[in-house]
User: Which sequence fits this backbone?
């Protein structure tokens, strides 16, 4: 426990005065500037300095992350993320090898998937100037769309769209 500073005030008239001890709680200290001298009738401003984190007065000190309890838990429904991209507006001279190298530059594409109809990883539709590809991860499909949408390949601007299954 710290020793509290004692203050003696001498008066010109009257008897001696007892030293004053002010009640100070735990972790609180008096902040009195040493340059201010006590004169009868004028008292220095007393400030309390609280040690802790932040400026919050209410509640326990040092609150960090909230621990999960039944009140602050949320139910989040995850929607299925699209893994399939549609590439439209292809040039007639664009080959599947060129398109496959573009797709593989972002991430791996699936070799085959189990659906009603077996769809290969890359399906070219040259009559419609379109291709459909399926990535292994939804993040790769999104990255491919962001990177190559409205991109020029073989003098044609391609449009990349995500397809939700």
Assistant:
């Amino acid at each position: 426990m710290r020793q509290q500073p004692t203050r003696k005030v001498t008066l010109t008239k009257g008897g001696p005065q007892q030293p004053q001890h002010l009640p100070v709680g735990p972790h609180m200290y008096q902040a009195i500037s040493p340059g201010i001298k006590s004169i009868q009738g004028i008292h220095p401003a007393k400030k309390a300095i609280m040690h802790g984190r932040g400026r919050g007065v209410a509640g326990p000190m040092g609150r960090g992350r909230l621990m999960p309890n039944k009140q602050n838990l949320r139910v989040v429904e995850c929607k299925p993320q699209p893994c399939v991209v549609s590439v439209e507006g292809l040039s007639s001279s664009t080959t599947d090898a060129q398109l496959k190298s573009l797709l593989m530059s972002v991430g791996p594409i699936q070799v085959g998937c189990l659906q009603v109809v077996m769809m290969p990883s890359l399906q070219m539709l040259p009559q419609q100037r379109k291709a459909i590809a399926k990535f292994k991860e939804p993040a790769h499909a999104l990255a491919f769309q962001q990177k190559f949408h409205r991109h020029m390949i073989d003098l044609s601007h391609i449009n990349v769209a995500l397809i939700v299954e």
In short: Residues 113-119 have pLDDT under 50 and may be disordered.
